[in-house]
């Protein structure tokens, strides 16, 4: 430990914050790890120096998926101090809002998740709240359901979703079971930042913490949630006649606790990857990334499917709110489907088999395939398709219009929902809908790939692709901010021979009349057009959960395609998307390189 942090030659604000963490009592839980980091920096470690600079350069923000970050010391890292401050800020915000003084807490399988969950429970109880804590790893959407069912004033999930193993996070839910949004989000962050004291839990306050043992979670918490998930299915009757066999992996997370009961209740044969049902100590050692958006994450499930003759492969992320899938084609090979195409298949299934009320609507985002809106509109449904990324925006629309029923909601990053009693995406509902669709297709002698082809021929071929430009650390944040400001100030004239016809900066005021749709977001959208009717949408958005810039390309053809002509149309539209993204990536690289280079 250094008695003089200025010896590290840090910026003044970073040095000041570091000094507080090295000396003040409330940071004692992180002192040992911090002293080791400082010692390494003093010994000349450039890695330790960079870690300190990033860990103490800002307060860990609330992004699209709560507060997430690398576990370690510092205000821009995830640790017990940040967790306690978040919980105390939540208590203060709940009091100010007059919310019911009861908090539900759920955690996933990450290394420190249980410890962090109990830290939340203790801090909330120290602040006068009653706490219900499920002491067995469970899905994030089950927390959303539990908040509404118990009438809680708030809910907390300890999870970093599909982030790397070294990360963890906390997601805060309001009394409607949705992640905090808009003014409630801002009020919570103000409350967190205003925390100066952390009350210690008194012994008599421990009785305010109601811990449900694993056995009680199974008998008291799970049944109502599982019944609700099952009720969102739309396929008629017993599906056993289809003979569908599904290989499923929860990727060392909690998905098997909700997906397996749902599929088995519909008489669908589901074979779990047992090795990946093991929490694995939070190491995720059998996958490079526990992200079902990445086809390689399903390698073990595909191997199981090949061994057993399964026709469908499903995967949920560690907190089971996202779904990934691979479908066996007519040639016997498995084809991964991206989040947009999975959403299209689920919506097609719902529109074909659900009883849809007059007040039903479909919700999606500005970076999700326009095919969702086209299909829903053709059915006569009300559609909102310009939401910012993050299912809290879908939930915001539901809160604005409680008289409406969510027929289907989705976003391209493998998030799906049906129904009104869960206000976040749900991997088990998605798994149920997709498995139902696959079973009915099999009964007709088709695959889900055949279903997609038919949809494209009717409504037009759609192609969407996302690039992730990784930019970690302080230099990365600065580079992304510089790029966004440069394009905001002077929008590019075009890409790959297409001209920018319309430019939208979602930080600028909007006037749709909906508080949720009018929320500002750090998003730039460009509508591009070229010769021969070529069109493509390009969208840029800094990730709210990881150190990267997300670049989206979306293009589509005219409707009414003859099946024989579909391959040529596919080739043309795919070429447009690839060319636009390649040119955009080159221009982004040129703008960001000076910032990233200055840190090397």
Structure description:
It is built from 18 helices and 21 strands. Helix 4 (80-97) crosses helix 5, helix 9 packs parallel to helix 15 (427-443) and helix 12 runs parallel beside helix 13 (371-378). The chain has a six-stranded mixed β-sheet, with helices on both faces. Strands 16-21-20-19-18-17 form a six-stranded antiparallel β-sheet, with helices on one face. It has 600 residues and is α/β, with parallel strands linked by helices. 40% of the residues lie in helices and 20% in strands. The radius of gyration is 24 Å and the shape is globular. It has helices at 12-23, 31-42, 46-55, 80-97, 113-126, 140-150, 182-193, 214-231, 259-265, 274-277, 299-308, 339-353, 371-378, 391-400, 427-443, 448-459, 473-489, 566-597, and strands spanning 67-70, 102-107, 130-134, 154-158, 167-173, 209-212, 245-249, 269-272, 312-316, 323-328, 334-337, 360-365, 382-387, 405-411, 415-417, 462-470, 494-495, 498-505, 524-529, 535-542, 548-556.
